[in-house]
């Protein structure tokens, strides 16, 4: 299997998620888990699935496409979801199409470094 196929994320919910994952891995960061279910309290079902991240360090990377901004309901849902994740101790790094690769890596590395000391 080629190197690129090994980095394809099964279950990615957008075409950009595998691209972000490859950027992070090629920068030398630990391989992130994808589609991480997050439970709150005794809930039987997850209230969120994070695009990718590191559960042990509570660091998530979320790719927000244009619908996250242009659909008001989605926008409000995203805000409430992010607030809930942060109350649970998660650091959420949001990536958008305009982000440069080196900026994504810098922000994710800073989040991981704040947890892996």
- The helix-strand sequence is HHEEEHHEH
Sequence of strands across the biggest β-sheet: 1-2-3-4
Q: What is the helix tally?
A: 5
Shape: globular
Low-pLDDT stretches:
1-10
Separation of the first and last Cα atoms: 35 Å
Rg, rounded, reads: 14 Å
Alpha-beta content class:
alpha+beta
The tally of strands reads 4
Instruction: Determine the fraction of residues in helical runs and give it as a percent range.
Output: 40-55%
Summed up:
With 117 residues, the chain is α+β, with helices and mostly antiparallel strands. The protein has helices spanning 3-6, 16-26, 67-70, 72-87, 101-115, and strands spanning 33-38, 48-54, 59-63, 91-95. The protein has a four-stranded mixed beta sheet with strand order 1-2-3-4, with helices on both faces.
Based on the model shown, name its key terms.
117 residues; 5 helices; single chain; 4-stranded mixed sheet; disordered N terminus
